[in-house]
Amino acid sequence: MKLLTELGDWLYSILVALALALFINIFLFQPSLVVGQSMEPTLHDGQRIFLSKLSHTLGKLPNYGDIVTIDSRVLRERDWQDDMTDPLMNWVNLLTGKQPSHTVWVKRVIGKPGDTLEFKQGHIYRNGALLDEPYIKEPMRNVADKQITVPDGQLFVLGDNRNNSSDSRVIGPIPRNHVLGTMVFGL
């Protein structure tokens, strides 16, 4: 009987610890892996980063220049089930060494709702002011001059390696609830 009680206590402790770890990972803090070269020279392929999930959990917009992870499936609505299963799959991928889903991208916030972004001669202007971007790998090449106004409830994100990045230039502005986390630090 004492053995069963002790096993029950151990099982209870393990379940509580697992539930707490899942809560933290889903709502507060999450590790992730950078896949590809789109954020070079800031982040590199295979680099581990740690994300704050508070902005996603509380529905806050990230700041200009923040590095965020996004769900690139912008034509698909996200719901609470995605918020529960995506972090679990992220842990499975990290523990097994499997590559994360290609739908989660790491990018930098360039535009917020209502901003007018202009692409002119390889440079970006936000609301008429040229962006100072010391973090980019090299100036953009082969980009047609155009102007975009970021819709309400959405963000415009770009990779730091502008000539080798799929980002809002390809899939359009990102719905606010598709921003999954904001990078806190990388290893």
Helix percent band: 25-40%
| Total discrete domains | 1
What Rg, in angstroms, do the CA atoms define? 19 Å
The CATH topology annotation reads as: Umud Fragment, subunit A
Low-confidence stretches: none
Name of the CATH class: Mainly Beta
Report the span from N to C terminus.
Answer: 48 Å
N-to-C order of helices and strands: HEEHEHEEEEEEHEE
**Mean pLDDT, nearest integer?**
87
In percent, how much strand structure appears in the residues? 25-35%
Explain this structure to me?
With 187 residues, the protein is α+β, with helices and mostly antiparallel strands. The protein has a single domain, classed as Umud Fragment, subunit A (Ribbon). The protein has 4 helices and 11 strands, in the order αββαβαββββββαββ. A 7-stranded antiparallel β-sheet has the order 1-2-11-3-4-9-10. Strands 7-6-5-8 form a 4-stranded antiparallel β-sheet, with no helix packed on it. Strand 5 and strand 6 form a beta hairpin. The longest helix has 26 residues. It is elongated, with a radius of gyration of 19 Å. The model has no long low-confidence stretch (mean pLDDT 87). Keywords: Hydrolase, Membrane, Protease, Transmembrane, Transmembrane helix. Its EC number is 3.4.21.89. It is found in: Cell membrane; Membrane. This is Signal peptidase I.
Summary tags:
Pept_S26A_signal_pept_1_Lys-AS; Umud Fragment, subunit A; 187 residues; elongated; Signal peptidase I; LexA/Signal_pep-like_sf; 4-stranded antiparallel sheet
